[in-house]
Design a protein that fits this description.
Layout lengths: L2 H15 L4 H20 L11 H13 L4 H20 L26 H9 L6 H16 L3 H5 L6 E2 L4 E5 L5 E5 L2 H13 L25 H15 L7 H14 L4 H8 L4 H4 L4 H14 L5
Antiparallel strand pairs: 1-2, 2-3
């Protein structure tokens, strides 16, 4: 079988057996595609079962020389490992050459956050006299109120809104459902949007249940949400580079800073592992460090 046949099988494996999102599947396929391109560039016309650790290490060395940062290298290596794990599952290989492939050690990057004052300023900058402004305010209030991923926001359904009991149902990574609380300000803005804007939009077939729509009656794109946030940041002169994920980071950080239980925040964010959620405790650590630097005699 050719490389492309195995890659096609890998795609089906990720979609059907692993239930990954389309974006995740495409990312894995791009990673394997980089390996294939490397082999072609090096004129290594090897079959899948002929690849050894030496060729894979040469590939890693090349992506490093091409300037990929440590996080990008780690992601690509993760994709290659997943591909070879699939080949082992399918009994294509008896030995996994990617098993000993080492990834660069990553420093734990602390996410950018916004203060409560910056969040309020961004939201207040939206012009509520326009239909788009009313929708955008509801959209960003929801993003911050419930800590949603941007993909979860744009795919939010009316049938998943339980506003009377202040909860929404979210479809997260791997199509996993979770119930997330939603605050009174977000509920107020959503109802204003539904009653005064959405009701007048000519909705396209198949989009009837989508909450946030553009003027043509179709669901919003993730890029559009980026654009809205960027425009708000420019309007208030915010110097930070922010994205929809910044709202999610801020949601989690403000909860942890206020004393919220880490397990509860993990559940609301939809993190599979609590170690992912623990990154949001950085503010507490910074506060403790500044306190000891200020008051401990050996730190003065």
């Amino acid at each position: 079988m050719s490389w492309q046949s195995y890659i096609k099988g890998f795609k089906s494996y990720l979609q059907l057996e692993k239930s990954l999102s389309q974006n995740s599947v495409e990312a894995y396929l791009r990673d394997v595609g980089k390996l294939v391109n490397y082999l072609e560039a090096e004129k290594l016309s090897l079959n899948v079962d002929e690849i050894k650790i030496e060729q894979l290490e040469g590939f890693v060395k090349t992506i490093n020389e091409l300037g990929f940062d440590a996080h990008s290298q780690a992601r690509i290596i993760s994709g290659i490992r997943a591909f070879y794990k699939y080949l082992m599952v399918e009994d294509v290989l008896s030995v996994n050459p990617a098993e000993l492939l080492s990834a660069p050690k990553l420093a734990r990057k602390l996410p950018d956050t916004l203060s409560v004052e910056e969040i309020n300023a961004l939201l207040a900058s939206i012009d509520l006299s326009t239909p788009e402004g009313t929708r955008n305010r509801a959209m960003l209030e929801t993003l911050y109120s419930s800590g949603l991923r941007v993909s979860e926001l744009v795919n939010l359904k009316i049938s998943s809104m339980f506003l009377d009991v202040e909860f929404i149902k979210v479809i997260g990574k791997g199509d996993k459902e979770r119930l997330v609380p939603i605050g009174s300000q977000a509920i107020k803005q959503i109802r204003l949007y539904q009653d005064n804007v959405r009701v007048y939009i000519p909705i396209q077939k198949g989009e009837e249940d989508m909450l946030f729509l553009n003027r043509r009656g179709k669901r919003l794109t993730r890029m559009y949400v980026f654009t809205v946030i960027k425009a708000c940041a420019e309007k208030i002169g915010l110097q930070k580079v922010i994205s929809p994920h910044t709202f999610r980071h801020s949601f989690a950080t403000h909860l942890i800073e206020g004393g919220a239980d880490l397990r509860a925040v993990q559940e609301m964010l939809g993190h599979a592992s609590i170690t992912t959620t623990e990154i949001y405790t950085h503010l507490d650590r910074d506060y403790l460090r500044s306190t000891i630097m200020q008051f401990h005699p050996r730190y003065k």
